[in-house]
Write a structure and sequence with these properties.
The structure holds two protein chains of two kinds. Chain A contains four helices and two strands; from the N terminus they run H-H-E-H-E-H. By secondary structure, chain A is mainly alpha-helical. The longest helix of chain A is centred in the C-terminal third of the chain and has 34 residues. By secondary structure, chain B is α+β, with helices and mostly antiparallel strands. The longest helix of chain B has about 35 residues. Classes of the chains: A mainly alpha, B alpha+beta. At the A-B interface, helix 2 and helix 4 of A face helix 1, strand 1 and helix 2 of B.
Chain lengths: ~130, ~140
Protein backbone atom coordinates (compact mmCIF):
# COMPACT_ATOMS: atom_id res chain seq x y z
CA UNK A 1 0.00 0.00 0.00
CA UNK A 2 1.42 3.32 -1.00
CA UNK A 3 1.31 6.01 1.59
CA UNK A 4 0.27 9.45 0.55
CA UNK A 5 1.04 12.28 2.96
CA UNK A 6 -1.34 14.59 1.09
CA UNK A 7 -4.23 12.20 1.68
CA UNK A 8 -3.22 11.69 5.29
CA UNK A 9 -3.47 15.41 5.94
CA UNK A 10 -6.83 15.41 4.18
CA UNK A 11 -8.38 18.87 3.87
CA UNK A 12 -6.62 20.31 6.88
CA UNK A 13 -3.71 21.61 4.87
CA UNK A 14 -5.97 23.55 2.51
CA UNK A 15 -8.14 24.64 5.42
CA UNK A 16 -5.26 26.09 7.42
CA UNK A 17 -4.10 28.07 4.40
CA UNK A 18 -7.53 29.56 3.86
CA UNK A 19 -7.85 30.34 7.59
CA UNK A 20 -4.49 32.13 7.56
CA UNK A 21 -5.53 34.17 4.54
CA UNK A 22 -8.87 35.00 6.08
CA UNK A 23 -7.08 36.19 9.19
CA UNK A 24 -5.05 38.67 7.12
CA UNK A 25 -8.19 39.83 5.28
CA UNK A 26 -9.95 40.44 8.59
CA UNK A 27 -6.95 42.29 10.00
CA UNK A 28 -6.96 44.45 6.86
CA UNK A 29 -10.57 45.31 7.64
CA UNK A 30 -9.68 46.19 11.23
CA UNK A 31 -6.67 48.22 10.09
CA UNK A 32 -8.81 50.24 7.69
CA UNK A 33 -11.71 50.89 10.05
CA UNK A 34 -11.00 54.64 9.80
CA UNK A 35 -10.08 54.84 6.11
CA UNK A 36 -12.62 56.78 4.02
CA UNK A 37 -14.25 54.77 1.19
CA UNK A 38 -12.70 51.48 2.30
CA UNK A 39 -15.05 48.54 1.76
CA UNK A 40 -14.85 45.61 4.17
CA UNK A 41 -13.95 42.32 2.48
CA UNK A 42 -14.16 38.64 3.26
CA UNK A 43 -14.08 35.24 1.61
CA UNK A 44 -16.71 32.52 1.58
CA UNK A 45 -14.91 29.71 3.41
CA UNK A 46 -17.28 26.96 2.22
CA UNK A 47 -16.88 28.00 -1.40
CA UNK A 48 -13.08 28.19 -1.19
CA UNK A 49 -12.80 24.78 0.49
CA UNK A 50 -15.11 23.27 -2.14
CA UNK A 51 -12.86 24.70 -4.88
CA UNK A 52 -9.82 23.24 -3.14
CA UNK A 53 -11.53 19.84 -3.02
CA UNK A 54 -12.34 19.95 -6.78
CA UNK A 55 -8.76 20.89 -7.58
CA UNK A 56 -7.45 18.03 -5.49
CA UNK A 57 -9.74 15.45 -7.05
CA UNK A 58 -8.40 16.29 -10.51
CA UNK A 59 -11.07 18.73 -11.59
CA UNK A 60 -8.51 21.43 -12.27
CA UNK A 61 -7.81 22.92 -15.72
CA UNK A 62 -4.83 21.69 -17.67
CA UNK A 63 -2.82 23.59 -20.28
CA UNK A 64 -2.37 21.54 -23.45
CA UNK A 65 0.44 23.70 -24.81
CA UNK A 66 3.42 25.20 -23.06
CA UNK A 67 2.67 28.57 -24.67
CA UNK A 68 -0.84 28.73 -23.27
CA UNK A 69 -1.54 30.66 -20.14
CA UNK A 70 -0.77 28.17 -17.40
CA UNK A 71 -3.62 27.64 -15.02
CA UNK A 72 -2.22 28.07 -11.56
CA UNK A 73 -2.72 25.25 -9.13
CA UNK A 74 -5.12 25.79 -6.34
CA UNK A 75 -4.06 28.62 -4.15
CA UNK A 76 -6.04 30.49 -1.59
CA UNK A 77 -4.87 33.73 -3.17
CA UNK A 78 -7.03 33.00 -6.21
CA UNK A 79 -10.06 32.64 -3.98
CA UNK A 80 -12.72 35.17 -4.70
CA UNK A 81 -12.63 38.17 -2.42
CA UNK A 82 -16.14 39.37 -1.71
CA UNK A 83 -17.43 42.62 -0.25
CA UNK A 84 -19.28 42.54 3.00
CA UNK A 85 -22.92 43.64 3.05
CA UNK A 86 -22.89 46.52 5.53
CA UNK A 87 -25.52 46.85 8.24
CA UNK A 88 -24.94 50.55 8.41
CA UNK A 89 -22.31 52.22 6.29
CA UNK A 90 -20.72 55.38 7.63
CA UNK A 91 -21.08 58.69 5.85
CA UNK A 92 -17.45 58.61 4.60
CA UNK A 93 -18.14 55.46 2.57
CA UNK A 94 -16.44 53.07 4.98
CA UNK A 95 -18.28 49.78 5.53
CA UNK A 96 -16.17 48.33 8.35
CA UNK A 97 -18.09 47.41 11.48
CA UNK A 98 -15.17 47.07 13.92
CA UNK A 99 -17.14 45.08 16.50
CA UNK A 100 -18.33 42.56 13.94
CA UNK A 101 -14.89 42.27 12.38
CA UNK A 102 -13.38 41.67 15.81
CA UNK A 103 -15.88 38.89 16.48
CA UNK A 104 -15.16 37.30 13.12
CA UNK A 105 -11.43 37.63 13.70
CA UNK A 106 -11.71 35.85 17.07
CA UNK A 107 -13.87 33.15 15.51
CA UNK A 108 -11.40 32.63 12.68
CA UNK A 109 -8.49 32.38 15.14
CA UNK A 110 -10.33 29.67 17.06
CA UNK A 111 -10.99 27.80 13.84
CA UNK A 112 -7.34 28.15 12.87
CA UNK A 113 -6.29 26.65 16.20
CA UNK A 114 -8.82 23.86 15.80
CA UNK A 115 -7.39 22.99 12.38
CA UNK A 116 -3.90 23.13 13.87
CA UNK A 117 -4.83 20.66 16.59
CA UNK A 118 -6.38 18.34 13.98
CA UNK A 119 -3.10 18.45 12.08
CA UNK A 120 -1.13 17.83 15.27
CA UNK A 121 -3.38 14.85 15.97
CA UNK A 122 -2.63 13.48 12.50
CA UNK A 123 1.10 13.90 13.07
CA UNK A 124 0.87 12.18 16.44
CA UNK A 125 -1.00 9.26 14.87
CA UNK A 126 1.60 8.92 12.14
CA UNK A 127 4.43 9.14 14.65
CA UNK A 128 3.03 6.39 16.83
CA UNK A 129 2.46 4.25 13.75
CA UNK A 130 6.08 4.73 12.66
CA UNK A 131 7.70 4.18 16.04
CA UNK A 132 5.30 1.37 16.93
CA UNK A 133 5.49 2.06 20.60
CA UNK B 1 2.83 33.55 3.93
CA UNK B 2 -0.52 35.02 4.86
CA UNK B 3 0.01 35.42 8.58
CA UNK B 4 3.09 37.58 8.03
CA UNK B 5 0.93 39.80 5.83
CA UNK B 6 -1.44 40.27 8.75
CA UNK B 7 1.49 41.50 10.85
CA UNK B 8 2.38 44.13 8.27
CA UNK B 9 -1.22 45.26 7.92
CA UNK B 10 -1.71 45.69 11.66
CA UNK B 11 1.66 47.44 11.86
CA UNK B 12 0.70 49.96 9.19
CA UNK B 13 -2.54 50.64 11.06
CA UNK B 14 -0.61 51.23 14.30
CA UNK B 15 1.67 53.73 12.60
CA UNK B 16 -1.28 55.52 10.96
CA UNK B 17 -3.19 55.72 14.24
CA UNK B 18 -0.14 57.02 16.08
CA UNK B 19 0.21 59.79 13.50
CA UNK B 20 -3.43 60.62 14.17
CA UNK B 21 -2.73 60.70 17.93
CA UNK B 22 0.30 62.93 17.28
CA UNK B 23 -1.70 65.47 15.28
CA UNK B 24 -4.39 65.46 17.96
CA UNK B 25 -1.75 66.09 20.63
CA UNK B 26 -0.23 68.99 18.69
CA UNK B 27 -3.69 70.45 18.02
CA UNK B 28 -4.60 70.35 21.70
CA UNK B 29 -1.20 71.69 22.72
CA UNK B 30 -1.55 74.64 20.35
CA UNK B 31 -5.22 75.35 21.04
CA UNK B 32 -4.36 78.64 22.74
CA UNK B 33 -1.34 79.68 20.67
CA UNK B 34 -2.20 83.25 19.72
CA UNK B 35 -0.74 85.38 16.97
CA UNK B 36 -1.22 88.83 15.50
CA UNK B 37 -2.11 87.92 11.91
CA UNK B 38 -4.11 85.33 10.01
CA UNK B 39 -1.19 83.67 8.19
CA UNK B 40 0.99 83.06 11.23
CA UNK B 41 -1.77 81.42 13.27
CA UNK B 42 -1.68 77.70 13.95
CA UNK B 43 -4.38 75.72 12.14
CA UNK B 44 -5.75 72.34 13.24
CA UNK B 45 -4.02 69.47 11.46
CA UNK B 46 -5.60 66.17 10.47
CA UNK B 47 -4.10 63.14 8.74
CA UNK B 48 -5.72 61.71 5.59
CA UNK B 49 -5.86 57.90 5.52
CA UNK B 50 -6.10 55.79 2.42
CA UNK B 51 -6.12 52.04 1.78
CA UNK B 52 -2.76 50.89 0.41
CA UNK B 53 -3.32 48.01 -1.99
CA UNK B 54 -0.37 45.66 -2.57
CA UNK B 55 1.70 47.53 -0.02
CA UNK B 56 3.56 44.42 1.13
CA UNK B 57 3.00 41.79 -1.58
CA UNK B 58 0.73 41.25 -4.58
CA UNK B 59 -1.96 39.53 -2.58
CA UNK B 60 -5.00 41.78 -2.89
CA UNK B 61 -6.22 40.52 0.48
CA UNK B 62 -3.66 42.37 2.55
CA UNK B 63 -4.61 46.02 2.52
CA UNK B 64 -2.55 48.28 4.74
CA UNK B 65 -3.19 51.87 5.73
CA UNK B 66 -1.24 54.72 4.26
CA UNK B 67 -1.18 58.30 5.52
CA UNK B 68 -1.53 60.38 2.38
CA UNK B 69 -0.61 63.54 4.16
CA UNK B 70 -1.52 65.90 6.92
CA UNK B 71 -3.93 68.68 5.94
CA UNK B 72 -4.58 71.94 7.74
CA UNK B 73 -8.15 72.78 8.56
CA UNK B 74 -9.46 75.70 6.48
CA UNK B 75 -12.26 76.64 8.83
CA UNK B 76 -12.41 80.22 10.14
CA UNK B 77 -9.90 81.26 12.83
CA UNK B 78 -11.16 82.65 16.10
CA UNK B 79 -10.61 86.39 16.68
CA UNK B 80 -10.67 88.03 20.05
CA UNK B 81 -10.69 91.74 20.88
CA UNK B 82 -7.88 92.23 23.36
CA UNK B 83 -6.14 95.59 22.80
CA UNK B 84 -3.88 95.13 25.85
CA UNK B 85 -2.37 91.91 24.52
CA UNK B 86 1.27 92.27 23.37
CA UNK B 87 0.43 90.41 20.13
CA UNK B 88 -2.69 92.42 19.28
CA UNK B 89 -2.78 93.99 15.79
CA UNK B 90 -3.57 97.65 15.01
CA UNK B 91 -7.31 97.12 15.50
CA UNK B 92 -6.68 95.39 18.83
CA UNK B 93 -7.47 91.84 17.76
CA UNK B 94 -5.54 88.63 18.40
CA UNK B 95 -5.99 85.45 16.34
CA UNK B 96 -6.58 82.06 17.91
CA UNK B 97 -6.28 78.65 16.18
CA UNK B 98 -9.37 76.94 14.73
CA UNK B 99 -8.87 73.95 17.03
CA UNK B 100 -12.10 72.47 18.32
CA UNK B 101 -11.12 70.82 21.61
CA UNK B 102 -14.24 68.65 21.81
CA UNK B 103 -13.74 67.36 18.28
CA UNK B 104 -10.10 66.64 19.10
CA UNK B 105 -10.98 64.69 22.24
CA UNK B 106 -13.47 62.54 20.30
CA UNK B 107 -10.83 62.00 17.64
CA UNK B 108 -8.32 60.98 20.28
CA UNK B 109 -10.63 58.39 21.84
CA UNK B 110 -11.45 56.94 18.43
CA UNK B 111 -7.75 56.73 17.53
CA UNK B 112 -6.77 55.09 20.79
CA UNK B 113 -9.55 52.47 20.45
CA UNK B 114 -8.44 51.71 16.90
CA UNK B 115 -4.85 51.44 18.11
CA UNK B 116 -5.92 49.04 20.86
CA UNK B 117 -7.78 46.61 18.65
CA UNK B 118 -5.02 46.57 16.10
CA UNK B 119 -2.57 45.65 18.85
CA UNK B 120 -5.00 42.91 19.88
CA UNK B 121 -5.18 41.62 16.31
CA UNK B 122 -1.39 41.60 16.15
CA UNK B 123 -1.12 39.64 19.40
CA UNK B 124 -3.62 37.07 18.17
CA UNK B 125 -1.68 36.69 14.92
CA UNK B 126 1.49 36.18 16.93
CA UNK B 127 -0.18 33.48 19.03
CA UNK B 128 -1.40 31.70 15.91
CA UNK B 129 2.06 31.84 14.43
CA UNK B 130 3.68 30.48 17.58
CA UNK B 131 1.13 27.65 17.62
CA UNK B 132 1.93 26.91 13.97
CA UNK B 133 5.64 26.71 14.75
CA UNK B 134 4.86 24.19 17.47
CA UNK B 135 2.89 22.01 15.06
CA UNK B 136 3.63 18.27 15.27
CA UNK B 137 5.36 18.50 18.61
Amino acid sequence: MRFNLDKAMAMHEAAIYVRARRSSILSSNLANSDTPNYKARDIDFQQVLRNAATMKSGGAMKATNAKHIQPGGYSASTAELLYRQPFQASIDGNTVDAQMEKAKFAQNSMQYQATLSFLTGKFKGLKSAITGE
Amino acid sequence: MSLLGAFNVSGSALSAQSIRLNTTASNLANAETVSSNRDATYRARHPVFSAAMNMFNDDSATVGVKVEGVVESQSELRMRYEPGHPLANEEGYIFLPNVNAIEEMANMISASRSYQYNVEAMNTTKQLMMATLQMGK
